[in-house]
Amino acid sequence: MDRFDRVFELHKIFAAHRYPVPTRVLMERLDCSRATVMRCIEALRTQLNAPVVYDRAAGGFHYAATASGIRFELPGLWFTAAELETLLVMQELLRHLEPGLLAERIAPLRARVAALLRQGGVEPAAAHRVRVLPVAARPVDPQRFQLLASALFERRRVRLGYRSRGDGSVSERDVSPQRLVRYRDNWYLDAWCHWRDGLRSFALDAIDRAEGLVEPARELSETELDAHFAGSYGIFAGPGDHLAVLRFTAERARWVAVERWHPDQVGHYLPDGGYQLQVPYSDQRELLMDILKYGPDVEVVAPQPLREAVAQRLAAAARRYR
Length: 322
Description:
Blueprint: H1 3-16, E1 21-22, H2 23-30, H3 34-48, E2 52-55, E3 60-63, H4 81-96, H5 103-119, H6 142-154, E4 156-163, E5 170-183, E6 186-193, E7 198-203, E8 207-216, H7 222-229, E9 242-248, H8 250-256, E10 266-269, E11 275-281, H9 284-292, E12 298-302, H10 304-320
Antiparallel strand pairs: 1-3, 2-3, 4-5, 4-8, 5-6, 6-7, 9-11, 9-12, 10-11
């Protein structure tokens, strides 16, 4: 426990006791010497204007009663040193979450976080020791993001111009936003599509235009959303009605055994030191990419269509290098 934490703990002790607390009890609770207790008390008095008084008869310290009868509280937000360090990490994550995205709105929040850090003796410049490395992130228009976020929280429909990845065509959709999702360094909108009359997931970078509507959004329960979006593998929705059985080499097993591919995955070590992983999925496209990155360190045992798809991709890749 450092000095900052001890001052905070000392305040909690005084706030919880109506009568003087003996110095020896404070030493035990703070796990420190009498001199350290006295320094912490002095910090409470001089830096935070706490009404700490000494009762000679009781041989202890307590908060003096105020004329208004209101008990003393620490000013503003108060954090322990460990909490401030966590806040510093979160500040850096906030800065890298999406460069330029809502920068003007987030700036005041970052400034207040920096002030709290300095108040606690943590220098915000130390954030350079935290590295955030986005991979394959696709930029999102800040104004479009703000419109979608507002519609999501205000429960209003949105009209989208959505560009197909396949042929580049743009379709117009009226949707009821349900969730904003950050997945693999990119943003998606889970929404009820009134054109398709079903739940869909829209990549924000593929939205060419967005217009807020006055109609209220259709409401769906968390249970309905989870049943549709959480059952399958990755970003693709739908029930996980297929089961991929993957067998990894012993060398790769040390990594895969601690990885989370899906909430309902099942895995176990094999006699030869390898690792077998079972993953439910509905659409094989994303799963296929994740399997291929392991190259010769993985074999698809089942189902046969997925096994054949991986074999075809590997054969096509090998032909390019001949």
